[in-house]
Each structure stands twice: as C-alpha cells, then as structure tokens.
Amino acid sequence: MLRAIKKPFSHKPLREYSTRWLEHHLDELTSKIVLFNEKVCFIIGCGATKDLQCGHLLERRHRHTRWDVHPEGNCHAQCPLHNQLHEGQAHIYRTDFVLRFGQSALDELERRARSMGKLTHTELEAMFHARDVITSPRAVKKTA
User: Fold this and answer.
1) How many domains does the chain fold into?
2) How far apart are the first and last CA of the chain?
3) Rounded mean pLDDT of 33-49?
4) N or C, which terminus of the chain has less Cβ within 10 Å?
C-alpha cells in the first residue's frame, strides 16, 4: 500500500499587487494608522497604553469594514487582553462602542459589514494607495 508523502507547504512570496498582497499590506497600514491615532485601549476603564493592537469590532472576514479606520469605524486600539477577550465575549466591545458612538453607529457599521457587494481588485488598490500616502514618512513628518 502506497502512502502519499506529506511535504510542508511552500512559503513562496506573494506576487506584488495580487489580492492577497494588497490585503496583507492593507492590514499592516490599517494597524499603523489606528495605533498612531489612538494611544489608549478602546475599552472604557482599561487605560492600557502599552503593547496596543488593532482590534476589530466585527470580524475581519467582513471586507467592507475590515480596513475601516474612521473614529466610528470597525478598527480600534486594544490591549492584548481585551483583544483576545472580546473574541469570546463580544458584548464587552459592543457595549463600549454603543456608549461612545450610539446604537445607530453600530447599526450602520453592521449594515456595511453585511453588504452583498464585492470589493474589486481596483478598489483594494485605491484603498492601498490612499493609506500608503497617509503612512509614508513624509506625511507623518508633516502632521508632527
């Protein structure tokens, strides 16, 4: 009886400007923008300022809100504890979001997250270039 030999997956580099490449770099740029704009954990009463991470109120699988960096958007700075904790207890993050921005902001965010439209490759590229300009070293120096 012959058995297939299992080989580890190859880790070939992503093709530049492929959809996966754009998504990866948009994730990195979004995280940089969120952590530059927010210096304290989003959860009310936490106050942590070190080792902040970019947390998502709604899962990253919702592409229309995955890279949303607006103040009332999906991405906010969180301490590692709360970023992990809200996976199982989403009500913590939701409650604080509603207290800050109101139920209507949450409803609008959920509506956008569940929209049936698809993000095209061109839209992802435009999003990438817009964020890349914001996070370039020259843009950061001008705002400082």
Assistant:
1) 1
2) 68
3) 95
4) N
Q: Which amino acid is at 134?
A: I
How is residue 129 written in tokens? 């270039």
DSSP conformation class of 43: S
Would you say residue 101 lies in a domain?
A: yes
The answer to the question of residue 29 being in a domain is: no
Cα angle: 35, vertex 40, 44; to 5 degrees: 130
pLDDT in tens, 62-107: 999 999 999 999 999 999 999 999 888 989 999 999 999 999 999 9
How far, in Å, are 2, 52, 63, 115 from residue 120 at the CA level? 44, 31, 11, 14
What is the spatial distance between Cα 141 and Cα 144, in angstroms, rounded to a whole number?
5
- DSSP characters over 70-138: STTSSEEEE-HHHHHHHHH-HHHHHHHHHHHH-HHHHHHHHHHHT--PPPPHHHHHHHHHHHHHHHSHH
